[in-house]
Design goal:
Layout lengths: L10 H16 L1 H38 L7 H19 L2 H19 L1 H6 L5 H33 L11 H6 L3 H20 L2 H22 L17 E2 L5 E2 L4 H31 L1
Helix pairs in contact: 1-6, 2-3, 2-6, 4-8, 4-9, 6-8, 8-9, 8-10
Amino acid sequence: MSTVRATPSAPSAVAPKGLVRTVLRLHRTALIVWAVFVLGTTCYLVWLTEVTADSVYETQAACLRNGGTFCGLTEAGDYAAPMSWISTFFSYSFWAVAAWAGGALIGRELESGTARLAWTQSVTPTRWLAAKLAVPALLIVVGGAVFVPVYRWAWSAHRNLMTDNWSYPDVFAARGPAVVAYGLCALAVGTLAGLALRRSLPALAVSVAVMVVLNQTIERYGEDFWPTVNNGWPPEDLWLTRDGTYHSPSQFWPMHLAETGIILTLTALATTAAFCLLRRRTA
């Protein structure tokens, strides 16, 4: 009597899709919150630029017709303050990304044992981690690709109603890819903290602390990332440095890309360290 052996299915062909679905299912609340946050802030920027700004101009014009002197200052604040807060919230959303990555995405699964359960289901630890990182990384990039162009347009549309300039840290980050780089770096740092500590709350705290220190350090020394100008008549919209020289608005992109490159380099290092640590512990 012959024995028929069942041919095993090829897990490598289906595992990636299954892993992606698992990540989406387990973390759908956080991913939905991120999507709502991006769309909400983007729509609010459009509203401020197209509706609120026109209301401020109408109020200022009516005040001037009535012989007023300080016309529309309060209304201008109603426009400028939300614009400033939007850049702040989005620029520092990496704190939430770091906390989520360290506490929920990685730390909690290692602490509860669900990660090791996944590794016994024909899923290698490396593939598991790659899927864990790919989904949120893609959403961070897409979110930034939606937000940054709209914010650049909104920030430039009514400069006469605003008081912040291009050198403000949150504005500086939000007007280019640095805001995306911070999010990706927070994801990598949170992942590394989760793998190293294997407990959700400590990983959450450490990952946020590391990103705060990194951000403050870059803000402190960001003016040194590109040569300053110390001759000629300084522009009105300048970045005054500690030693009295300045950066002009034309230097925004070189400085911004230099900062972005530094952050992405740190992201790559943290990601590499996370994979190396995982391989060593699961070898």
